[in-house]
């Protein structure tokens, strides 16, 4: 059996990965030594053989959820999923460095966890891929991929040489033009797979990436969540059961297709607190949880139960504190609620974060109909809209208009039609921007 060197970690400890394809399986093993120089090479014929093995193990039949709208979108984007999955698995098989960045909310974390679980399932079954996948998991605080992020990611892989270019895998980031410099910088080092579900903004260059997949490009919308897309992606090469993860993602982003069970509600609450305040869920010293942390907690029934009840009690306490502080104005038949988050937050924990709390609070005060909630927190203004009026209001157009008219005041803004935010350059601008925002919302609803 021939074995070929495919990657090497040069300093301070050299790690050599050898790859072989034999009997229709891809096998990789690592050996370590200090200060050893080596050439990084795999014969082209072996790379082609590995590629054929991967291609033959990709599931070409689209994943079926059993919800017609979601399944229709999945069918339309499945060819792109299969192409991206082949790239991902080729990188894994050849020992290429892989950086996975995921948004720090329920949707982004569920997407990363689905990918992690699929790889674990593939490895433990002793199937066609018996390779140690080199992945650096990074929870991203925000939905922009900035140039400094790209430079940091390049630093992570700079001491690794491989026959195949490193891979950057992004889950649940936005489509703001603020990510363009990061994309441009990242392409100097990485190939990129990007799974997202935010509405496509004009001028966003990510949509031109070869492996950019977004349901908006295939007749879908943001109700087809990034976490669900990641679950579907995982089914192109793994038969891991993702049903609970899917439901947690759909529930976490308030998708129209959410049908929560007790198990998925529990997972969503745990993912919410893990990504909101890692020190509560994991302990001090962990600022950016990984899927390994998530898996450890979900596998520990006692700990996960304690976290679930903690999350439920804190959210309930916050809702009770918020109710008497809400202010309300009318906009036609709809209601606009405003709330300053700062006086009601619980100092002992960062959970719940403002935007997520806003979604929960709106569901409590509106019964899902005819309401808008504007929540203030520092330089951020979070807006939540009930689904029945979100299409008519066109929240993203309103935010874009305010951003264009007030460039010295508004740093950025975006999100979904039912859940979006504005970032101010200084929180002292909040009163004026809030008045302008309410004015536009009233015009859109009256």
Describe the structure.
The protein is α/β, with parallel strands linked by helices. It is 43% helix and 20% strand. It has 15 helices and 16 strands. It has helices at 44-56, 68-93, 106-124, 147-157, 180-186, 226-234, 243-252, 262-276, 278-281, 291-298, 301-322, 354-366, 387-393, 395-405, 430-445; strands spanning 4-9, 14-22, 25-33, 98-103, 129-130, 135-140, 160-162, 167-171, 191-195, 212-213, 327-331, 334-340, 371-377, 380-385, 410-415, 419-424. It has a six-stranded mixed beta sheet, with helices on both faces. A five-stranded mixed beta sheet has the order 5-3-2-1-7. The longest helix has 26 residues, at 68-93. The model is unreliable at 10-15 and 32-38 (pLDDT under 50).
Percent of residues in helices: 40-55%
**Number of helical segments with 4 or more residues:** 15
What is the number of strand segments? 16
Q: Numbering strands along the chain, what is their spatial order in the largest sheet?
A: 11-12-13-14-16-15
Distance linking N and C termini: 74 Å
Strand content: 15-25%
Cα shape: globular
pLDDT < 50 runs, ≥5 residues: 10-15, 32-38
pLDDT averaged over residues = 89
The structural class is alpha/beta
Q: Describe the sheet with the most strands.
A: 6 strands, mixed
Rg = 23 Å
């Amino acid at each position: 059996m021939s074995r070929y060197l495919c990657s090497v970690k040069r300093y301070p400890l050299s790690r050599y990965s050898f790859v072989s394809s034999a009997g229709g399986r891809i096998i990789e093993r690592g050996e370590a030594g200090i200060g050893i120089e080596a050439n990084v090479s795999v014969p082209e014929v072996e790379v082609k053989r590995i590629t054929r093995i991967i291609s033959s193990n990709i599931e070409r039949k689209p994943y079926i959820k059993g919800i017609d709208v979601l399944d229709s979108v999945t069918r339309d984007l499945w060819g792109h999923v299969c192409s991206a999955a082949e790239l991902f698995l080729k990188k894994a098989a050849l020992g290429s460095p892989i950086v996975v960045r995921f948004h720090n909310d329920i949707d982004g974390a569920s997407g990363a966890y689905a990918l992690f679980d699929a790889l674990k399932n593939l490895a433990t079954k002793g199937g066609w891929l018996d390779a140690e996948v080199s992945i650096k998991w990074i929870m991203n605080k925000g939905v922009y991929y900035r140039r400094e992020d790209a430079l940091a990611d390049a630093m992570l892989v700079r001491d690794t040489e491989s026959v195949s270019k490193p891979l950057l895998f992004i889950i649940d980031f936005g489509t703001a033009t603020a990510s363009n410099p990061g994309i441009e910088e990242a392409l100097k080092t990485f190939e990129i797979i990007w799974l997202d579900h935010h509405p496509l903004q004009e001028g966003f260059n990510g949509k031109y990436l070869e492996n950019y997949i977004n349901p908006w490009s295939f007749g879908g919308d943001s109700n087809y969540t990034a976490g669900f897309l990641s679950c579907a992606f995982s089914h192109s090469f793994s038969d891991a059961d993702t049903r609970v993860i899917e439901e947690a993602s759909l529930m976490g982003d308030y998708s129209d297709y959410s049908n929560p069970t007790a198990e998925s509600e529990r997972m969503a609450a745990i993912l919410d607190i893990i990504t909101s305040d890692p020190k509560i869920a994991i302990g001090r010293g962990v600022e950016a949880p990984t899927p390994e942390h998530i898996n450890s907690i979900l596998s520990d029934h006692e700990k996960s139960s304690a976290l679930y009840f903690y999350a439920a009690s804190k959210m309930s306490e916050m809702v009770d504190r918020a109710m008497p502080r809400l202010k309300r104005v009318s906009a036609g038949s709809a209601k606009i609620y405003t709330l300053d988050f700062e006086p009601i937050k619980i100092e002992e924990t960062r959970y719940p974060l403002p935007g997520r709390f806003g979604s929960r609070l709106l569901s409590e005060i509106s019964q899902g109909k005819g309401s808008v909630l504007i929540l203030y927190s520092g330089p951020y203004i979070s807006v939540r809209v009930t689904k029945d009026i979100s299409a008519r209001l066109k929240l993203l157009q309103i935010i874009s208009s305010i951003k264009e008219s007030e460039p010295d005041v508004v740093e950025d803004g975006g999100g979904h039609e039912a859940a979006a935010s504005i970032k101010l350059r200084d929180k002292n601008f909040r009163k004026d921007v809030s008045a302008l925002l309410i004015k536009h919302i009233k015009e859109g609803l009256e």
